Amino acid sequence: MKQRVETEKFYPAYPVFVLTYLNEVGEPQMSTGSSSYTLGDTIVIGVSAESNASKHIYAGQKLAVNFPNTEQLGLIEQGGFSSGKRNDKIKVHQIELTKSDNGGVAYIDACPIVLECTVTQTVSDADYHTIFAKIDTRLFEKKLLDSDGHFIHEELDLVLFSGDANERKFRQLATKIETVGGHS
Ligand SMILES: Cc1cc2nc3c(=O)[nH]c(=O)nc-3n(C[C@H](O)[C@H](O)[C@H](O)COP(=O)(O)O)c2cc1C
């Protein structure tokens, strides 16, 4: 039997990312998030309506979704503990950005996986700004790829974010991996 939980939020464990995008004068910005899903070439990201990200990310804009590893909790907190509305996080924390060679926005090369995206649509209400974007390029660090360019599952090290309104935690992936299929 289940127990009903009275909490305003619950995150089962989503991968943490740091968005990079430009403000109205072309200066790079960064914001930490965990609310996303991807399906094929589409990524959907939720940010709060009051965030700096919601102000600058709209249809036609470029953004990069940078996925940090478990050595980069500092970067995650730098992007997520204050708003770009009040300080320039990229400058304050001296975040090294790499220029895109695909017409995209500058990204954080230190992160093991980066998705270069173009925003196709946004849907806003009083609380949330939902961003639909097309994934233009997927950039992986070399150790994540075998000689055929295929993803090496065992090498993936991302930070997951889980918890409820009471407390949220960072988690890491276990290397227990199962093939999909043959379990039913
Ligand atoms: C691990 C982590 C995950 C977060 N996930 C989200 C999220 O999915 N959506 C969101 O709006 N804010 C999220 N936040 C909070 C924002 O990062 C925070 O409000 C930040 O100040 C927003 O920056 P901005 O105003 O410069 O965009 C998260 C923060 C952390 C540390």
What do these coordinates show?
InterPro entries: Flavin_Rdtase-like_dom, Flavoredoxin, Split_barrel_FMN-bd. Belongs to the flavoredoxin family. Keywords: Flavoprotein. This is Flavin reductase like domain-containing protein. Pfam families: Flavin_Reduct. This protein is mostly beta strands. About 10% of the residues lie in helices and about 40% in strands. The chain contains 3 helices and 10 strands. The protein has helices at about 50-55, 75-80, 90, and strands at about 10-15, 15-20, 30-35, 35-40, 40-50, 60-65, 115-125, 130-140, 160-165, 170. The strands form 2 sheets. A 7-stranded antiparallel sheet has the order 3-2-6-7-8-5-4. It has a 3-stranded antiparallel sheet with strand order 1-9-10, with no helix packed on it. A hairpin with a 2-residue loop joins strand 4 (about 35-40) and strand 5 (about 40-50). The protein binds flavin mononucleotide (FMN).
Summarize the structure.
By secondary structure, the protein is mainly beta.
Notable features of this structure?
184 residues; mainly beta; seven-stranded antiparallel beta sheet; three-stranded antiparallel beta sheet; 10 strands; 9% helix; globular; binds flavin mononucleotide
